[in-house]
Design goal:
This protein is of the alpha/beta class. It is 43% helix and 13% strand.
């Protein structure tokens, strides 16, 4: 069991939702990212570090611009691994998950990439454009290094595919809100049905992402174990004001999501 599993179990025992923050490394530069992580550290359970990519198709406009800024500033794959390693050496205590696209993994080599995750004390990997049917090689490489390959699942996936994703889940499942949770309506009903279906097949934690910017959006979802926020954080630090002012606003925003209660507790397994 790595520290990602322990942190998620800890949140379950406290009957609260785990908070994962998604940050694209190097936007607008690596020094700012370090300060941003320090600002978020007390509020979050998991840090998701994104490797800037030239064509991040799974991301919205906010993160696409973040990637462009980071790449224009010269940030590359090695810089993101270096940042993760430095965070660990400086005492950052939270689990870390790396997000990237398969083109980057393939260029590095699957086994080499998984080994670099382990060497820099990263606990999980998300590859949004990797189909489940093509994930075996990377999944095997990650497992050999004690890394969780995190799969994504959407409300529109066929029943058979949802069942297979649940069967292969490790670490947690990234539940994609197709249109962003709204606090009501058919989109929320789809998410509720998906969470219930997934829970029938796995006890792996279920984290909801895409479109979350208010704590109220996370109310009423039985079986939900946590949530992911990325673009909303990015929009805040892109705003006006000094660096210190923008980081203060990020900290105030993140604090609103600390210790949100779970609607229904899933069984805790040790």
């Amino acid at each position: 069991m790595n520290i990602l599993d322990r942190q998620l179990q800890h949140a379950r025992r406290e009957n609260r939702l785990a908070f994962m923050a998604h940050v694209y490394a190097g936007d607008p530069d690596l020094n700012f990212t370090r300060r941003l992580v320090d600002t978020l550290a007390d509020a979050i359970d998991i840090l998701e570090l994104g490797i800037p990519f030239a064509d991040p198709l799974a991301d919205g406009a906010t993160f696409q611009l973040a990637c462009r800024r980071a790449l224009a500033g010269g940030v590359r794959v090695a810089d993101v691994f270096r940042l993760a390693g430095e965070l660990r050496r400086d005492g950052f205590p939270r689990p870390m998950v790396l997000t990237t696209y398969m083109n980057i993994v393939a260029r590095q080599g699957v086994d080499h990439f998984a080994r670099r995750l382990q060497e820099n004390d990263i606990q999980g990997l998300i590859v949004p454009d990797l189909p489940l049917e093509e994930a075996d090689e990377l999944d095997d490489a990650c497992r050999a290094e004690g890394i969780h390959l995190i799969h994504l699942v959407t409300p529109t996936a066929p029943h058979r595919r949802i069942t297979e994703i649940a069967r292969r889940a490790a670490g947690f499942l990234y539940v994609v809100s197709r249109t962003g949770v709204t606090g009501g309506g058919e989109a929320d009903a789809e998410i509720r049905r998906l969470l219930e279906q997934l829970r029938q097949h796995t006890d792996v934690p279920l984290l909801l992402g895409f479109g979350i910017s208010q704590p109220e959006q996370l109310q009423g979802f039985s079986y939900l174990d946590g949530f992911i926020i990325g673009s909303a954080i990015c929009r805040i630090y892109q705003g006006e004001g000094t660096v210190a002012e923008r980081l203060r606003r990020v900290g105030e925003f993140a604090a609103r999501f600390r210790h949100l209660p779970r609607t229904a507790a899933a069984p805790v397994t040790d």
